[in-house]
Amino acid sequence: MPSTSESALLLPGAPVAEAVLAETAAATARLRERGITPSLATVLVGDDDASAGYIRIKQRQAAELGFASPHEHLPAAASQADLHRVIARFNADPAVHGLLVQYPIPAHLDYDVALQSIDPDKDVDGMHPLNMGRLAVGLPGPLPCTPAGIETLLAHYEIPVSGREVVILGRGATLGRPLAMLLAQKRPTANAAVTVVHTGVRDWPRYARRADVLVGAAGVPGIIQPEHVKPGAVVIGAGVRYAGRRLLPDVDEACASVAGAITPRVGGVGPTTVAMLVRNVVRAAERASG
Ligand SMILES: NC(=O)c1ccc[n+]([C@@H]2O[C@H](COP(=O)([O-])OP(=O)(O)OC[C@H]3O[C@@H](n4cnc5c(N)ncnc54)[C@H](OP(=O)(O)O)[C@@H]3O)[C@@H](O)[C@H]2O)c1
What we know:
This protein has helices spanning 14-33, 49-64, 80-92, 111-116, 129-137, 145-156, 176-183, 204-208, 270-288; strands spanning 4-5, 8-10, 40-45, 71-74, 98-101, 165-169, 193-197, 213-216, 234-237, 240-243, 246-249, 261-262. It is α/β, with parallel strands linked by helices and 290 residues long. It has 2 domains: 35-119, Rossmann fold (3-Layer(aba) Sandwich); 144-270, 3-Layer(aba) Sandwich (Rossmann fold). Strands 1-2-12-9-8-6-7 form a 7-stranded mixed beta sheet. A 3-stranded parallel beta sheet has the order 4-3-5, with helices on both faces. The chain has a two-stranded antiparallel ribbon with strand order 10-11. It binds NADP nicotinamide-adenine-dinucleotide phosphate (NAP). NADP nicotinamide-adenine-dinucleotide phosphate is lined by residues 146, 169-176, 198-200, 204, 217-220, 223, 238-241, 269-270, 273. Belongs to the tetrahydrofolate dehydrogenase/cyclohydrolase family. Catalyzes the oxidation of 5,10-methylenetetrahydrofolate to 5,10-methenyltetrahydrofolate and then the hydrolysis of 5,10-methenyltetrahydrofolate to 10-formyltetrahydrofolate. Homodimer. NADP(+) binds at residues 170-172, 240. It comes from Phytohabitans kaempferiae.
């Protein structure tokens, strides 16, 4: 059971991730019995410390599950063609099931163009336009990791979403927009009345205050305050900004005094994201092997 903080139940991501990783380990074992080793290829361009750290976390998780994890580290001065050559090599390798290029890449390179050159079936970040399209029309394919992590977290804690009002603050391509598509789908763990608000909706607090589930997906520290939360509502903090190593979340901690349940300031949605990534790798391996 989640623990209590002030009046709100806390919804940590770690138990959710553990449950997903246990399922993923079982699926990996089934694949290995058939002689298939799931493989996550990663590409890092340049020497950004934070990006290198994220790659290490993903590789460590892949290693713990017994995945192969081929890696290519390109210098900061690499050209777009250099990057595409590496992507093409991993695309063509049948032993590679998942492929990601760590974001951000150096400013002289175009991330969106690189993303579009990844084989959509290997796009385990779920961000390729074809996968966004699959999500929009409800076709199977890799789901974007953070939105899928949020749906899984809500389901894990048996928070009802179906038929209820979900308000998402932010319509960004990595979070708010795909989350809205996901939670509006006709499935028991989704099926919500979803409203997306953003800078174009000046009176967004009016919508936020009627949410049964309110999601911060703006990347504006402290934008969600207790007065924006309906008493007893569930508050999910996904939007964050970093000041150096310090994490500044969208959701002010004081919201715990009004919410019925809330993700913790640290260790909420984050841990579910990597779990969704490795789940995407195993599912890609399952699809590739029929
Ligand atoms: N926890 C995780 O694992 C994880 C993973 C991915 C992303 N994130 C975080 O999620 C956040 C969103 O990511 P993203 O890529 O989707 O960002 P994005 O593209 O920058 O989108 C931010 C959204 O927030 C809205 N917004 C910004 N300021 C606002 C304000 N004052 N009032 C109302 N709306 C406002 C923007 O509105 P407009 O569209 O009108 O500009 C935009 O729709 C970021 O903080 C990112 O770090 C977290």
